[in-house]
Each structure stands twice: as C-alpha cells, then as structure tokens.
## 1
Amino acid sequence: MHERVLLIEDEPHIVEALSFLLTREGLSVSTHSDGSNAAETAARLTPDLVILDVMLPGKSGFDILSEIRGTEGMAETPVLMLTAKGQSRDRAAAQAAGASMFMTKPFSNREIVANIKALLA
Amino acid sequence: MISFNILVSICLLYVLGLFAVAYAAERWAETGRFAILRSPLVYTLSISVYCTAWTFYGAVGSAARNGLEFVAIYLGPTLVFVGWWWLLHKLVRIGRVQRITSIADLLSSRYGKSGGLAVLVTVLAVVGTTPYIALQLQSMTLSFAVFTTATGAPAPSPTVTAFYVAAGLAVFTIIFGTRNLDANERHHGVVTAIAVEAVVKLAALLSVGIFVVWGVASGPADIFARMDPELLQSSQVFNTRWVMLNFLSACAIICLPRMFQVIVVENSNERHLATASWAFPLYLFLMSLFVLPIAIAGQSILAPDANPDLFVLTVPLDQGQQTLATLAFLGGFSSATSMVIVASIALSTMMSNHIVLPLWLRMNASRNPASDDVRDLLLRSRRASIAVVVALGYVYFQFNGGTGALASIGLIAFLGVAQVLPALLGGLFWHSATRPAAIASICTGFFIWAYTLFVPSFSGAALMGPEALASGPFGISWLAPQNLLGVGITDPLVHAVFWSLGLNTVVFVVVSLLTTPSAIERLQSVQFINVFGQVSPRRGITRSTAIEDLLVLAQRILGREEAMALFRAQARHQGKDSPLPDATNELIATLEREIAGSVGAAAAHAMMAQVTGGSEISFEDMIAVADETAQIMEYSARLETQSKELEQAAAQLRDANAKLTELGAQKDTFLSQVSHELRTPMTSIRTFSEILQDGDTLAPEQLNHFATIIHSESIRLTRLLDDILDLSFMENGRVQLNLETVPVQSIIDRALATTQAQANELGAVIRRDTTAEQITLYTDADRLSQVLINLVTNALKHCGTTPPEVSVLSGLHDGKLLITVADNGRGISEDDIDLIFEKFSKLSKKFTSGSAGLGLPISREIVKNLGGTLVYAGSSMGAVFRITLPLRTTETPESA
C-alpha cells in the first residue's frame, strides 16, 4: 500500500517537481495550493505525511500546522515544512508550531527524498 | 504730704537708679551675662517708648473730653503690629542688612544714598519731634506744679523746672546715648533703662486704675454707673476724625524717629519682632484698660475746672493717697524721660551723620577722611546734637508752653513725621520710586503740614495773625490755612491730613512716573525690595585701592581693634595668611556697610569714594557695570540659543535615528522578500535540473516540458533581478532618463502595440481617443510606455469580465497632462488600495503576476521620476489608474 503524502504549496512548478519526485519514489501525492482551507483538506485526507510551505496565499503555514496538529488523529503525523526565507526565526517558529522537519528552498532532491523517507519510516 | 523737695529727691534717686541699670546693662552686655537683656521682652518693653507722657496723662484727658477717641491712639499701633507685622519685619531686615542708623538713613540709602534727602528727612524729623519734646517738658512741669499746688510749698517757676528737667535729660542721654559710635552696636544700657521705665509707667497706671475702680468706687459696675452718658455717645467717636487718628497713630509707629530707633535700629534679633507682635499690643491694651475709669472718677469727684490731663495725679492726691500719687508721678516722669532720651538719640544720630559729617567732609574735601579722627568728630557732634534737640524742645515749650491740650500737640507731631510715609512705603515696594519724587513729596507734605497745622498751632499772633488764620493770608480766602480751596473740612486735623498726605502721595506717584531712577537707585531698590531674596553683593566696579588706606579709614571710624578684627576676618574669608585682605570689591562693599553703620549710607559712600579714589561711583564705573551686565546677558542669550540649537540637533538626530531604524527594518524586510522571491524560481530550476541530471528515462515531451520550465523560471529570475535594480535606482533618484520631445500619441501607440497580442487573445476591447492625444511632451518615452504597458496588462488580466474593456484616455487638466487607464471590472476594494503600490505585496503580486509584485511600485517610481504622480482613482465601476504629468514641451521645466 502506497504511503500518502499531502503537498500544500502554491508555486505550480514546485508542486509539479515535487509530485514527480515523490511519485517516482512510489508515494501517492495529493496537492493543495491554497492556504485558506488546507487544514480541512488534510483532515479529510488524513495523509501519512504533509509537506507544508510557509508562505501561502490566504493563511500562513504556521497557522495551518497548528490546525493540523489540532485535528483528531493528526497530532503525530510527520510534517515537513518548506520556506523560501531561510531565516532562523522561521525555523524556531516551525518547531514551536510542531513541525517534524524544516527545509529551506532551494533544496536538493536527494536530501528531501531521504528526509521524507526517514519521516515515513 | 510730700513736699516739692522730697519729690525732686525722689526723681533724682529714680534717675540715679536708671543710671545704675543702664550702666550695669552695658557691662553685662559687654561680658555677655544676663541673657534676659537681649530677650524679646526687653525689646517689646522698649517699644513702649511709644507711650509718652502724652499717652500717660493725655489719654485720660482725651477720654474725659472726647470719650472713646483716645482708643485710636492705641488701636493704630496695634493694627500695625498685628496686621502689618510683615512690613515691620521687612524694615528690620533692611535695617540689619544695610546697617541702617535712622529713618533718614533708610530713605537716603534707598534713594541712591542721597545726602540731600537725608538732610530733608532729618530737618523734618527735628521739626516734627521738637513739639513732642516740648510736650514732655510741659507734662513734667505740670505734674510738678500739681504737687506744688497741693502742698503749697515754694517752688521754682515752670520754666525753671522745665530747664532743669531738660538739662538733666540731656546729660543722661549724652552719657548713655553716645558711648558707642556705631548706632548698630545698639544702646543696651539705654534700652534696658527704657524697659525699666516701661514697667514703671505700666505699674503706675494700673495701680491708679485699680485704686480708682476698687478704692474710689466699689467695682467696675459702680465706676461705669458714675459715667456721664454723654461721654460714650459723643459724636467724636467712629467718625472721620477717629479713622484719621487711627491712621496717624499707625503711621507714627513706623515713621516716628524714636519708634524707628527702638523697632529697627535697636533690634538685635529679628525673632524678637514675633514676640513684640503680640506682646506690644497687649502692653497697649493694659495701658488703655483704666483710662476711662480714671477719667470718670476725675469728673465725678474733682472740681469741674480741674485739668483732665492731670487726673492720673490729682485723683489719688484728692483721695489722700500720697504714695500712689508719687508712683503715678514717677510713671509720668518715666514716660516723658524715655521719650526724650530715645528721640534725642535718634535725632542726634541723624543730625551728626547727615548734616554735620557731610558738611565736614565738604569743608575738608581735599583731606583724606582717614587722616583725621572722624570718630571723635562724630561723638562730639552727636553730643552737641542731643543738647541742641533738647534745647529746641525747651525753646518750643517756652514759646508755646502751657497752651493747647497735650493730645493736640502730639497729633501735630504725628502728622509731621507721617509725611515720610509715601516715600518710605514706595521705597520698600515700588521699583519705579525715584529720589526726586521722594524729595518733592516730602517737601510738599512738609510744607502743607507746616502751613495748615504746625504754624496755626502757635497761639497768638506769633507767626500768623488770627485774621490771616481765619480768612487766609492777604485776604485770599482759598489760601486759609485751615480751609484750603474752601473744601469745608471743619476739623483742622482731618483737613491737614487730607491735604498734606493726599498731595504728598500724588506728588510722589506723579514725579516717580515722570523721572527715571538712577543706576545706584536701581541697585538699592533691588536690595531693599528684594531684601528677603538673595542679597547679591555689588560687583563689577574695579577700583585700585591700597588696603592700608582702607584700614586707616576703618580704624578711624570703627575703632582700632574692631577694624583689625574685621580685616582679619575678611583676610581669612579670602583664604589669606596675612592679616590684611585684598582690596576686592566685596571687601569695599562690606567695609562701606560697616562704616554706614556708624555714619550713615550717604556719608559712608562719600568717604569710601574719597579713599578709593573716585568721587561718586563714576560714569565709567557704571558703564563698566552696564557693559559687564550686557556681556553676561549676551552670553546667556548665546547659551540659550546654543542650547536651543542643541535641542533641535538632538531632535533631528532622534528623527534621523528613528528614520534609519525604520529604513533598516524596511531594508531587512525588503531583503527578506527579495530572498523569498529569488528562492522560489531557483527552487524550480534546481529541482528540475536535478531531475534531468538523474538521467532517468524520461519521455521526450516530459524532457522538453521540464527544460521549458527551467527556461521560463530563469527568465523570471532575471526579470526579477532587473526589476529590483530598476526600482532601487529609481527610489534613489539615480535613474538615467532619456528625455525627448514626443507626441503622446506615439507613446500610447507603442504601449498598445506591445499588449496587442494579449488583448487579442482575450478578445479585449481597447478604447482610445486619438484626437486628444495630439499633445507633445518632453519626457522619457520608453519609461512612460513601460508604465502604460504595465497598467494595460494589469487591466486585461485582472478586470475579470469578458470581454475585458480597457480605455486609455488622455487630456489636459490645470495645465497638466492626464492619462487614465480604466477597465470595466469590479475595481479594487477600498481596504486594498493602500497595498497595491507596496513592493511584493500579495495584491501587487497578483496584479503583476510573473514579475514578483514589483510592477506597480516600479510604475509609480517611473512617473515620480518624470515629475508626475500615479494614483488609483477607481470605483466599483472599474479600476482606474491616473497618471498626471507636468506639461513640459521643451527642456525648460514647467513652462505652462
């Protein structure tokens, strides 16, 4: 059974790239590009892992993460946060919000895949 | 029955007793024993020198004649001591600080150390006091006569009695009044003797009163039952005259030379005044307590023709109370002697300091005042002055003796000395009061007083005939001394008060306003009026003086040892080891004050000026002071300006700092945003290029697709960098503009040609009015069309209607070119309008997708660089952007 990954990201080319990579690794990828109802989507899909961008239209990634963590059954779901700002402030905020891992764009394909596999293991 | 000879013996013994008290007090003061001598009680009792024979005998007489009128004489001083305590306090403080020796010295010192004013006040004081001294002599003579009549013993004539009394008083005063030169060293002996006399007169009056109430009558109720009811219903009480009497006696307590002497000059401690402020009114109260009973008793038991002025003596005599009568006699004797002693001391100080010494200085102008023994001269002149003052009183008594009631003579004296009141009060409280005003006002008041009250007081035709008195000199009725201008004031005293003090005050105020105080008057006015503030030493006058000259002068006047002590103290104060201090301005000022304590301010100033080598304070000195003051003021003004400038600079720095902080924060935000915007396309590029690197077997379409993404993201990256640089340059105003004169039409043509393809794709309608575009403009055509392309592209993309309609319209308004780009969409919500020009804002990003949200900010900067504005002017009918540009057609800017 394929493990399911929910990718919450607004930049279409990045969505396309990550979908390609993860599908190639045998994961089942769902995508969501808008911040406002991302948490509902996550609650509905109950994925095995969430990849979450910090800067989303409508709602900040930190808020969405808090909502996900508050969703029943998702308190322990691994969440990998992505940011394009790369400031330590964001890293701290992500940890405080309950992110399992934090990566800065641009990232290496090999690294992100390895991290995702580690989180799913 | 006590014989005349026994009475004289008792008087002599009493005087000898006073001598002993005075002498002992002097010794005790020197050795510092018997602190009670310096107690406020002695001070208060010495003030009772106010109660002379006039009050002792005359109050009963006044009560017998006019009922309660006599109360005014006690009430006025009481009001001053209770209500005007602060005025007395100010006088005492000034007296101490300025080493004032007399009331003449006070006025002279206040009004520029004027010698002329001092002479004037001295003359006024002598003239005003002479009748008063005569009054004392008269009362003593009368009281002697009472005993003579009662015993039937042979007695010398009244004039002989008066002569011996006067001579005796003069001797006593000379011995104890001129032992010390410095009036401010105070006459401990005399003051103590006066205090003893105060106790005697109070005891005498109280004894007679008690005898009358409980000995003659059977208690207060009985004595008042005997009262003639007319006495209290007299119309003389609580009328204008009564108010005037209150006022006059209030003035007297301040202005009478002897009162000034005991209150101000003899004051050794300002705190004593606090005690006196209640104790002296109490003393007056006790003195007045039995006045009415004694008057009633005298009227009820003595013959109707008995002199009411002597009831105090005649009532006990009539009742056969010899001892009590003798005590009463001693009370009256004490009242008279204490007044004569203090008055003659006060007047002699004034005469020697303000008349004799200045005359001597003038006559010996070439000689250094330090070269002769001024001290000796002063002592001799003081002794002579005392003799002269007492002699004047005796002469007045001879001339005017036996006439007039005691009270009326006292009132004449009161009003005479009250003439200094306007100048005195003005000097204490009004900076604009001037010397000419003081002189003019005192002269005016003095003259009117003499004309309306003093001269008419001489009975007979001595100075002015009864006709002239009644109908005016030479028959000029409006000049009638007791009815000036025919105002019809019937009471001569009220008439005189009204005219003399009224005109006096008017003259004082008017002349003060018309004249300007001299520099030294200004200095003194500050010292006087602000005496409770900080007393700043006079400064700024540089004088080169040999310290030895100053020492010699000080020794002559202050005495050898005291001068040396003063100089040693000053040297220590200056921090020098030698006994001689430097002749600093401070020293000169101190020395002048010390010498003023002996010879008065005016003379001290003149002497110091002679020694220090200038006549008066010279014009140059004053200029130097003025210059220094001006420099200080200028300096402080400069400091003030500098401090203001510093404040401004600090405020500017704070602003700049705040701005920098804000700019720093903006820069951080901007860099963070730039970083974010750059990382996003880079992420796509890296990810896809790594996928390509992996060498997976990708379908050719997929391969192509990924390469296309990499390509477009690279272009996006490049454009983003270009935009950032562009914006940065423009924000700093460093953009290179390529200005030329072009028709507006061609600019719009160019913009629409670029957006043509996009418009066609969307089936959009583009409207324009080419006839309105026939305007030429001096501008950067490329940049302006860049703005238009941005706006049109935004409109096409975001208006959200199908088909989009975009109108690009131009026109002139207020001499400016307007270009509007409008669409038929929903427009921008009001909340977002402020955000659309923000860099990287989500809205601006939306409006310019593909270019990372810098389109509108860049457009606005371009228009700004071209000298115009770009604003959003849309509504719900559609988004409208309006460009306003100055209509320049050549390089000359802003030609309308």
## 2
Amino acid sequence: MIEIKDLHKSYKMGSNSLHVLKGINFKVEEGELVAIMGSSGSGKSTLLNILGMLDELDQGTYTLDGVPIKNLSETKAAQYRNKFLGFIFQSFNLINYKSAAENVALPLYYQKVPRKERQEKALKYLERVGLKPWADHLPSELSGGQKQRVAIARAMAAEPKVLLADEPTGALDSKTSYEVMDLIQKINDDGNTILVVTHEEDIAHMCKRIVHLKDGIIVEDKKVEQVRAAQYV
Amino acid sequence: MRFIFDRNTWQEIFGSIGKNKTRTIITIVGVLWGIFIYIALSGAAKGMDNGFEKVFESVSMNSMFVWGQSTSMPYEGFKTGRPMQLKLGDVAKLENRIPEINNIAPRITLGNFGTDPVFTVRGQKSGSYPVNGDYPVYTKIATKKIFDGGRFINDEDIAKARKVCVIGERNVQELFDKDEDPIGQYIRIGDVYFQVVGVHKLSQGVSFDSDAAIFIPFTTFRKLYNTGDNVDYFCIAAYDDVDVVQVEKDVKALLKNIHRVNPEDERAFGSFNLGEMFTRVSGFAKGMTFLSLVVGIATILAGVIGIGNILLISVKERTKELGVRRALGATPREVRSQIILESVFLTMIAGIMGIILGAGVLSIINSLTKDLDFPYTNPTVPIPYVLGALLIMVVLGTLIGLIPAQRAVSIKPIDALREE
C-alpha cells in the first residue's frame, strides 16, 4: 500500500539546514495498523506529513497504492489527498461553525458527491462512531472524545485507502484515549490501513506494528501482539 | 460556472460569512455607504440639472438682447456721446447679413427702462403697468403661455394696427372681478381703449416679462406714441447649433456699421447673452454631475477596499480552517473561488441595499422640495449608471477578493495546520 525508499527531508532554518529525515525505507501492507513512535524532533510528524502529501520530500521515492507521489501540483495533491487519504489530527481540526454531520460531509463535498448522498453517508459514518444523535451539534457542544470521533468519521467518509492519525489521543485523557483507540482498532478490523503517530507506549501497543524513529532514521521496526483497547473501556 | 450556481457553494459562503455577523454587517455598511453616496449625489446632481433646464424652458436658450446706448468714441465726424437709436430697418439688415439668426423680435416698451408705466383703467379699477409693443415672432423667443380661449398678437393685428392687448395674470386680478372672463372685454390703456384678446400665464423660472406686462401690437404702439421706426431693443434667437457669443459679436459689429460707430467702440450698443449664461449654469450642473460621479466612485472604492481588508483579516483568522479544507481535498482553485465569491457576494448585497436606500432618499428629497422655489426636479439616476456602478462593484469586489484569496492559497496546508 505504502512504499518509501531512501527518503530524505531537510528544513532550511535561516542559513542552517536541519536534516530531519535521513534515509527512511518503509513499507506498509494493506490492512496494517502501524504505530510510528519517537521522541519529539525524531521526525515522526514530518514523515506523516510527507505521507499525507502535506509536505514534499527532498529525495527518495514514495509510492501510494501503486501511484508515484512526486512533484505534485497543489491541485493534484489536493485531489490525491481527497481520494487516498483520511486525516485525524491531535487537535481534531473540526470546522467550528459547522455541525458534526456537515463536518463529516466536507470531504465528500470536495469529491463533488451530491448533497443527499453526502448527508446519508455522513450520518452513516457518524453512526459507526456512535454519534448519530449528535449529528446536528456544533463541535463546541461536544466533548474532546466526541470531537475526535467526529474527526475519525470525517476521515473515513471519503473512504480513503489509508488513514493517517497524528497523535489522535494527544489531547485526550486516558479513558477517552482508549475509546478512540478502540474505534481505530475496529476500523482496522474492517480491513482499513491505518498509521498512527504517537509517543505513548500504551497507545503504540494497541497497534499491530511499531516503527521507532530516532534522529531521522528507523531504529526499530517490529510486529507486536496487539493489546485490545476494548478491555480498558 | 457550475460552481456559482451550486447550492453547496452558497452554503459554504453563508456559513463562513455568517460566522462573524457583526463584522459582516459593518463590512456591508462600508460599501453600502459608498453606493448610497454615489446614487444620492448623482441623483441630486441630475435633479439640479433638470431643475435648471426647467428654469430655462420658457425662453430660447441661445438668445440674446441688444440695445442702443451712446458712443464713447468720435467717428467720421461724429462727436462722442451720440445716443444710439435702433431702427426697425435694422431687422432686415441683421437677418440678411447674419445667417445664424433664426428670429429677431424688435420691442418697444413703456414702463421698463426708466420710462413711466402706463395708467390703465377698467371700470372702477385701475393700475399702472408696463406696456410693450410687440410682433408675433416674440413668442418664438420667449414662449408665452396663453390661457384657454385667448391668443397672442397675430399678423393681422400688426397689419391693421388693431387696438388689442394681451394682459398678464396680475392685470386680470387687479382690473377684473373674480370669475369674470377678461377675454373680449375692453380696458383703457393711457387714453385709448383696447380689447383684451389673451391672458398670459406667468412662467416659472427665467422670464423677460413680469406677470403684469401688457402686450399690444408694435404698429399700434408706434402710432399711439409716435415712435416712428424706433426700437428699444432686439430679442435675437440664433439657431440651436450656433455659437451665440459669436452671433452677439457679429450683431454688434453690424449695428456699429449701420449706425456709423467706431468699430472699436464698446459702449455704443449694450447686449446681454442668455446663451452664455445658460452655458455657465449648465456647465455648473455638469460639473456637479462629474463631481458626484468622482466622489461616489471614490467612496465605493473605499468601501470595497474595506471588504478586502476585512476578508484579509478573516483569511488570517481562518488559516487553520482553510488548512483543514486543503487537507480534506479542497483544491487551491476551490479555496480561491470561495473567497472571491464571498467578496463579490458581500459587495453585491451592500450595493443593492445602497441603491435602494439612495433611491428612497432621493424620492424623499424630491417630495420635500416639490413646492419650494428651488431648481430641483425629478432627481433620477440613469439605469446605465446604476448598472455601471454594480458592474464596477463586481469587478472591484473580484479584484480586491483576489488579494485575500491569493493569501489563502499561498498558505501551505501543513503550515496552516501547525498554527495553533
């Protein structure tokens, strides 16, 4: 599903250049649930941004579902993001003047899905995250966990190939964190490919594979016994 | 195009401009004020223009007067200070030699230029009024509205030197009883009885005669007062497309020639040029129109710049939201279009409201000044001006929207999302 070869990325900070990713080789199969771990500054968020086509790579190759991702125009990148990827952010990033259902329907709007169908799909995905009764609520009327579940529904609404979650539990207490992880595990059980960036050990162990990043290179890449989050809920 | 008529697009736009209602309203008021000023000013200027036109409607606009004074230079043996007397014979010479002249009306009068008005009697009532000896052609230069049932002096009156007269509204009030029909009645002007054949209405605006002026045939006048070929002054109307100032010069030069006056003598003949005055007044009205156009458009511009400014702030505030949209698959084009459309939409709403408000204020002013003696009539803004203003606003709205739109697009989604 995802294949990265010899990925390099550096940022210019004034006259200095900060080499963040120093040759990453990485492969994700369909249906995997991968945790990317590392301390801050290890390059994990940069890696996720490149995977999400939010950032460009300097060197190396990136293939997503057989499509080479290179030198995309902004428009093409937007279309690929819409088609291939679903994003889950640490700070939820819901649009605060839109109801839960409208937020979920937003990626479908950019896919030019007709209105009726959009609403139906939005409700369907809200139901999957257990928030159908909150469909008409604004984000400000929802709790943190609920917001993240709306964000997950939004990420899934476009039926992407890969879900990218950047610290999805970073802003949540541990109980809600486990609820969110439980949801992510269930989505993964349905066969979706998910990448989770986290620095929390317990969250990482709820995935099926852990990739450790340190100073821009992968220091460890291991399959783990998945801890089901459901037992903590 | 589909984008503009898409219900979803508008939902997005309403969503984002409805988010901060106070700001949206203040923004709208900025442009609304601009278009309101534009409409109100150009309507008022137009009203004034119409008003001036109405003031001049009863007189031929390119007309002039010329009268004799006395010479200030010796010439061909004549000494200085010789009084000038216009003659009836001058009419034919002027008409023949100056083709630009449309009509000449020679006039002779009592009670206007230092002479005493004529004592006029009817039964027990009497009064003193100016009396004019006129030709029918006079009405081609200064329109006389005659009340129903009457007429002005005609050629037959001139030929037979009839003792008929046309009197003014005030004469009727002062000499006749109420509800009495003056037509056909006799009044004594000086020592002679005249039959009233018409009553002239006082014209609003510029007029050469008062509402108590009595008109009698020129030929009758000259017989009565033994004035021979003497004429007090000529009313001259030039053709419409002619420069009256030049005609004025030509007429005076010719008169100097006829009456053997030094061509350099500026004092021998006096003249007054209505065309020049009218040009000046209409020039003023045109200037007002132009000024109101400039001020109006400048105000609109200021308002639209306000919208651009507000949208720029709003884009800054919405950086994160725009980032999310980009991450979810909004193309730069879609983001740009949305912001431009927001700008155009705000401008249009404000514009239409401003036009309605401006039209309302104009009609209020119009009804307030209707009965006042003020040159202000029917203030209207021509439809092309209104459409032009709307078009300007759409164009400006788009252009000004481009700035925040470009700003929004230039933010990379990653930077937008990073911003906390």
